[in-house]
Amino acid sequence: MAGARDGLPERLCRTCAVAVPVNGVGLALMTPTRHGGTITATDGAAALLEDLQQALGEGPCVDASRDERPVLQPDLAATGTSRWPGFTARALEAGVAAVFAFPLQVGAIRLGVLDLYRATTGSLDRLQLAEALAFAEAASTILLHLQDKAPSGQPLHPQLAEAVDSRREIHQATGMITVQAAVGLAEALLLLQAHAYSNERSLIDVAKDVVARRLRFAPEDDHHE
Amino acid sequence: MSREQRLASVFVELADTLVADFDVIDFLHTLTERSVELLQADAAGLILVDPHGQLHVLASTTDQARVLELFELQASEGPCLDCYTTGQPVVNIDLAEVKARWPHFQTATTAAGFRSVHALPLRLRGQVIGAMNLFCRTRSNLSDDDLAVGQALSDVATIGLLQERTVRHSEVIAEQLQAALNSRILIEQAKGVLAERTGIGVDAAFAVLRAYARSSGRQLGAVAAAVIDGSLDAAMSQSLGHSE
Fold this sequence. Notes:
The complex is a heterodimer.
Chain A: H1 8-19, E1 24-30, E2 35-41, H2 44-56, H3 60-67, E3 71-73, H4 76-83, H5 85-93, E4 98-106, E5 109-118, H6 126-148, H7 158-165, H8 168-180, H9 185-198, H10 203-211
Antiparallel strand pairs in A: 1-2, 1-5, 3-4, 4-5
Helix pairs in contact in A: 1-6, 2-5, 4-5, 8-9, 8-10, 9-10
Chain B: H1 3-19, H2 24-38, E1 43-49, E2 55-60, H3 65-73, H4 79-86, H5 95-101, H6 103-111, E3 116-124, E4 127-136, H7 144-198, H8 202-216, H9 220-228, H10 233-243
């Protein structure tokens, strides 16, 4: 799905990869607290980086969005493990050596992230950084433009809604787990994430099992309130 | 300091304000004050026209009610209104013509002690958003040089105002996006909550949510939030009872 269309987000990411240059670029929405869904990614590794950050709730883009400034990791193997153990291990496995995450915001309002990765270690030099920042600005503008052009009657532009819809089972499963385990939404998501991580399965696959009722979560006797 | 030097330093000052911590009202006040100084006027005001065609005084060099009234009077007639409608400067109009074109305005202007009035359009690429109004106590004509300076100052004001509008519009859209995203996620979560509580599938749960939203006249996002926090439990069960 990612990269299949040739809309503005896709073109922005492809052009960014060539211009900076980096090996791949991903664009995602962010809520105030977590990854909101991938809009597009230029290749498999970029898509994986987004999925990982959504599945684990940790990673450079999460920090970048929360701290409202770019997170630059020129050598993920050296510095990523202590900050994001789960994310770093899987990202390195996928051949990602460096990650540069740029938050997209309007004033204090956080909209999303633009994540750049390289298969080799090394920093972005000043010109490359300036280039990347310019693309982040453009990405914010594109998000606003899409939202502004949402057909009347639709709260979200279809391409932005797709970012949520393509992973809707994650949210549906979260809702189901709140009832099954008698916990709040945040904890339900943590239970889902923990199960996926410890069973080395993708979050979306586990979520689909929950929604299809192949997997249930019981209230834990010793869970902390 | 010659006028040229003063002119140059004023434009540097205005350009600096546009890029640094931009406060639009402060900026417009500075602009009116510099306009009075550079064009040897006695009072100046920046008038903006809103989407409904109403005139608003955004900044003025004086707080005197008599002068402010002169700006407001032009909502129905006066050089500012003509300037806004045509997008052209309305300057150097002789007294007889002023009286003929805008009788009420002329009476009020004279009573306030002014002998000359000029209006310059606030416009950018065909879009006219208001006017800069200048009042003089003596009979004064703006030379071509004065006109050029005056229009340049008006153009700077326009740039500042349009920049402010763009920023505000962006903020509104950004907030909409954030709210719509949160709502969308909430709806998916609510499908799961409802499906689990009632033993139906998520698609069936969505149908229930939509039906309830329609019949109760509430937004889908609000219904979803209420399902999640438990406040709609009883109503939902009832809803399901009816649909089966």
